[in-house]
Task: structure prediction
Amino acid sequence: MGTQLIAAGLAPGDCGMLWCVEKPDAVEAVHRRYRDAGCDLITTNSFGGCTTNLERHSLTGHADELNRAAAQAARRAVGDNAWVLADIGPFGGFLEPLGEMTAAELFKLFVQQAAALKAGGADAALIETMTDPGEAAVAVKAAKQAADWPVIATYAFDRGDGTNYRTMMGTTIEVAMKEAIAAGADVVGANCGTAMNLEDYARLAEQMVRAAGKTPVIIQPNAGAPQNVGGKDIYPATPAEMAALVPTLLNAGVRIIGGCCGTSPDHLRAMGETLRKQS
Ligand SMILES: [Zn+2]
Result:
């Protein structure tokens, strides 16, 4: 969504979520392009919809309105032809004792966001780009408190040295999966990533499936590791390269496949075509 809104004219650093009310047609057009590419699951434009993030854009007090509008835009765009996933990203700080946010306060903020997304018509919650299993657990419990719906929780892993994948907070795959499942997540996995190329996502998938046990695993890789070209992040993997990764992910036991940064509708279309040939 971020990549697509910037392509549509959003200035980097501006609040893309504001477009849910100011330019809903542009947001709906993005959703429709992914639906037309064959996606069964559409993610709302609400990644930064926790009040703490909105405050940074001087949007204090608008969390209910913006999150509801985000879900409504996705629902209007795809009707009943796709699932609408309520996107919930990190709150942008650290929990106590590293930071000042308490788990109880954060729980309230995530309940508020999830409830507004549910009120706007979302079908399931997608908690994304988590690096702290403590925050992921709070978000999962809050999403479960807000509605009776499936809750997906995914982490951003970093390649670090070799294939010893950890989140930015140093959390291992085993701990990350275990904490999200213990909090009540119905599906667990990974999205985004740092310095991860496509082979890394394949290895990560295998390790996550092993760690998740009976809980289904989702993976939404970036289009490769970004390369900085003239101050801009360019994601190098082509649709064909992303599609070639799909059989490997399926063989590893992954149950839901999508894309994060740099994955255009063309990437998802190619991946979907390969997936449907396999299954
Ligand atoms: Zn990403």
DSSP finds eleven helices and eleven strands in the chain. The longest strand covers residues 124-130.
